[in-house]
Amino acid sequence: MKNIDDIAKLAGVSKSTVSRYLNNGSVSSQTKQKLDEIIQTYDYQPNQFAQSLRAHRTNMIGTIIPRMNSHAVDETVKGIKTICDKLNYRLLLNYTNLNTELEIDALETFYRSKMDGVIFMATDITPEHIEVINKVRVPVIIVGQSHKDLHCITYDDYQAGYLVGDLLGQKGYQHIKFFGVTESDSAVGIHRKNGLIAGLQKHGIQPSISITSFHYSEALIDVEKELQTHKHYDAIVGATDAIALAVHKYQSKHGISKHVVGFGGDPVTEIVSPPIQTVPYAFEHAGEVAMDMLDKMIQHQPVEKEIVIGIDQTFKK
Amino acid sequence: MKNIDDIAKLAGVSKSTVSRYLNNGSVSSQTKQKLDEIIQTYDYQPNQFAQSLRAHRTNMIGTIIPRMNSHAVDETVKGIKTICDKLNYRLLLNYTNLNTELEIDALETFYRSKMDGVIFMATDITPEHIEVINKVRVPVIIVGQSHKDLHCITYDDYQAGYLVGDLLGQKGYQHIKFFGVTESDSAVGIHRKNGLIAGLQKHGIQPSISITSFHYSEALIDVEKELQTHKHYDAIVGATDAIALAVHKYQSKHGISKHVVGFGGDPVTEIVSPPIQTVPYAFEHAGEVAMDMLDKMIQHQPVEKEIVIGIDQTFKK
Question: Start and end of every HTH cro/C1-type domain (chains A, B) (predicted)?
Fold first, then answer.
């Protein structure tokens, strides 16, 4: 078992630099990388310093949420909160209304408020995000999107799309309409779409694809425009439950009841009649996994770079 | 114009006590009351100390939210956020899942994190809440409930209930079922219900009343039990939109389409078919009003004790 002196010698830095590193203080990225490696190699557990480390910690966690009235956000925060309660962290949320500038500001606010770590429910990760995440020097975990330079919890969106495509093919549908979203959201805009295309391709089907908005009311306008002029589809897929609900609204207004599929497991898909088929996502579980991972990072324990949450294949009804 | 010396003399306390008071520090409740009165009487504007006060401030606002996946919470936070952005405050949220213990803890966490003020979206205010609110010594505003000892933003729930009762009477409905909630939530459980009863009474109608839960899935069970055995109602009122949606679900499952009314203006009431009639609440406006009021309190300007947000009477369709 190595102690802090050994670590300092191995890294060729002073003991106080190691201590600063352990307390999430400022060290160069080169030193940080070196210390990361040494600590991982020797499986260094800084538990003997837990008491002193603790003094530097606030036991507060910040979470950045892009919107409020959302099943996905609600469930994810529930999961984060469960683990926070278990591990005696306080959870504070920062609501950014899908605005990049506010997200950057939220990261800085959490850093200044001395949060021990941050969970960021992201839709789009820009170079500006990366810059500030590197700057704030507290552990940050992204939920919902993948990024090569960041710790992430993601969903198997390709698989979710594939399952739906394969299922629709099996059921004998021929003319499929897909309402997707912008590719700047790579999870939903790219992976989910590509999975669907591949699942349908297995059955020799090529879907018609339009791009619409994440917002129900904006999607409703696009859906109306498209479905009023193209009536030959026998199944319609929304890239999200909100989009699927817009399709449902259009159909019930016009007395149509073609098969509609969404993604996310929003309970509203059950309230409407007929219910919409939706692929449930394990948002709450993802929140728990994210907070467990963040706690390990705060304690300088080794963690995975990315954890992919699987899709429950039994959803088919 | 009085200065801080005059205020101290008038109150019979030291200048440092006045300064402590102005900086939200600890002063006795007796002294606080005396200083409140003097400052209000002489319309004392501590602007000349703004700079020094500012140094003691973090420009951070805490908001306690009882749940996430809620139209009311979403809209209220939007309103709060708009004013925070305008006045250069940072907004942090604490999610308490309708748990009193977590609410108490949230108040203390915000106090320890040196928030300048707190907005509390409450459903039930217990003596424990009052105790901690008095203890934390930062301005706290309650949104959604009224309490004689606290600053509040409330809705005219009685009027909302009355409008619905009167409207149903005018439309000629005779047998009205009302699904209410516990009276421990006085806004919804008492005022909204009493308004409905009074509005119906004007037309000589007495509703049948059952108590159910705020949660859709729990309400669905109660609604099924009641409506399966009592089929003679010609209109059904839910104390909230979630309850009205449970009634809608029951009806669409059984091919029934009696008139359903809810409260809150949740957009889901528009997605379902047929749409549910709902009384819109100005949640976003209430959030703006609350944050404006909180800012005044932080600056020690006089504010109203309670502001009642009116109901838009044009909702009738």
Answer: 6-45
Q: Do A91 and B94 touch (CB under 8 A)?
A: yes
**What average pLDDT does chain B have?**
89
Q: Which CATH superfamily is domain A157-280 in?
A: Response regulator (3.40.50.2300)
Q: A253 contacts in B (CB within 8 Å)?
A: 273
Measure the CA–CA gap between B153 and B287, rounded to whole angstroms.
Answer: 9
Q: What is the ipTM of this complex?
A: 0.74
CATH number of A58-155+283-315: 3.40.50.2300
Option in B97, B216, B273 nearest A252 (CB): B273
Alpha helices in B211-263 (DSSP H): 216-229, 241-253
Query: Which pLDDT score, from 0 to 100, does residue B293 have?
Result: 97
CATH class held by domain B4-51: mainly alpha
Q: Is A209 helix (H, G, I), strand (E, B) or coil?
A: strand
Picking from B90, B92, B267, the nearest residue to A93 by CB comes out as B92
Sorted by sequence, the CB contacts under 8 Å of residue B109 that are 6+ apart come out as A60, A90, A92, B62, B94
Q: How far is A168 from chain B, CA to nearest CA, in Å?
A: 25
Is the per-residue pLDDT at B201 higher than 90? yes
Position B298 pLDDT exceeds 80: yes
Pairs of CB atoms within 8 A across A/B: 90
Q: Do A77 and B95 touch (CB under 8 A)?
A: yes
